[in-house]
Amino acid sequence: MWEAAPTFAALAEVAPQLSHATRSAAALAGTAGTGSRSSYFNRPKTPSRRAGRPGRPPFGSLLNMKRRLFLKSGSAAAVLPALAACGGGGGGGAELGGDAAAWVPAGTPSAAASFAALPEKILACYYTTWDTGTYKLTQVPADFNVLFLFHAKPNGQPIYGNYDNVGDGSFYFEHYDTVKAEHIQACRDRGQKVLLTVGGARAGFAFTSRAQSRRFVTSFQTMVERLGGLDGVDFNNYEADILNDRNLSAVTTEMVWIASQLKSLYGPGFAVTSPPQPNDPRQQRLMVAMNGAGVLDCASSQYYDWWGFNQPGYIKSRTDTWVHLLGDAGKVVVGLSANYGNGPSMDDCVREWEDIRKAHPHIRGMFAWSAQTNLKAGNSWGLRMRSML
Question: Which terminus has fewer CB within 10 Å in the chain: N or C?
Fold first, then answer.
């Protein structure tokens, strides 16, 4: 597959085009709405935010070397030793060359544990776990075959309500009393895949050391056990400048390692997904790295919380870019909104999806923010988009 994937030289040519198209719109972006995973997160970045200073390669020479190694290898197991040889980053160096690939937390399932892969075509939604009073998880219609539980947070003391980078790398889920294991298993029993989102707005974490990454894996195992079993993880831990030029290399190394550990623990069918900002070149490079390492099942860019996403052709154009970056339309999911006031309307979603499907017949699918807003409109979005999937 990776013969068709872009090299970093190609990425260097693409990134300026991404920013150029949104230069004036970014300057006009207003305050984002409330209630979703992101606010500042989804506004397009301007060219000045990219690493392209005179005398430096656009993406950093060390990162270039690491990325070439990713793209040439076929699996996470092959990538990890290569990263160790590169060194650099908060999680690199000698630690990676030791027990990185073999480490498994005590008492975890063996690699023989298996999960069925994600559906060939995905219609997903985010279920906000703090909003269970009106609709229970089990009320999400079967039209949706993938459910994201939003969300788990860093396990530390928040600073004025902000959980970004607090704690030691472990995460926790705070809604066991209202999102019960039996609800999750009922959804799974009827064929819906259930993934836990880690991170979100004001709940991100930059993994820059192996110790932090190990704590995360152990804490994730605890959450899986308490929830009775899950089908995957959805990484939303790097938004709103959590990921930056200073830590990109280390975070990339650690997230590849974390994802490979989870797939080793729960089997290759255990899903790893992530919803990047559509236009951020750092997040693009992180997704390309995880995909090249063989540990990313889907990247699903979010197209809401900024008015510019509603312009005709914008979502389709950005989707073209993501298909090019990942080299496979089957790795791309389109993030839309259902009856959500700060996102594309039903007509916007239908128009963009029709054009996307014509250009990329093998596109993996789409998701809606959110399950609750969709249900408040009688599942009209779910029924319409399911018919078009």
Answer: N
Strand partners, 150: 128, 197
Amino acid at 298: C
The conformation of residue 134, written as its DSSP 8-state character, comes to S
**How many of the other CB atoms lie within 10 Å of CB of 27?**
10
Cβ-contact 224, 265 below 8 angstroms: no
Joined tokens for residue 193: 């895949």
Stated as kind and residue range, the H or E segment containing 175 is none
Separation in Å, CA 118 to CA 240, 273, 283, 304: 28, 10, 23, 24
| Residue 116 amino acid letter | A
Distance CA 246, CA 55 (A): 17
Rounded-to-integer distance, Cα 222 and Cα 236, Å? 19
The Cα–Cα gap between 150 and 173 comes to 9
For CA atoms 238, 272, 287, 350, the dihedral sign is negative
Give yes or no for a contact between 334 and 315, defined as CB atoms under 8 angstroms apart.
yes
pTM of the model: 0.76
Report the run of H or E that residue 123 belongs to, with start and end: strand 122-128
The model's pLDDT over 165-216, given as tens digits with 9 standing for 90+, comes to 999 999 999 999 999 999 999 999 999 999 999 999 999 999 999 999 999 9
Distances (CA, A) of 182 to 138, 194, 310, 370: 10, 12, 38, 22
What are the beta bridge partners of residue 274? 299
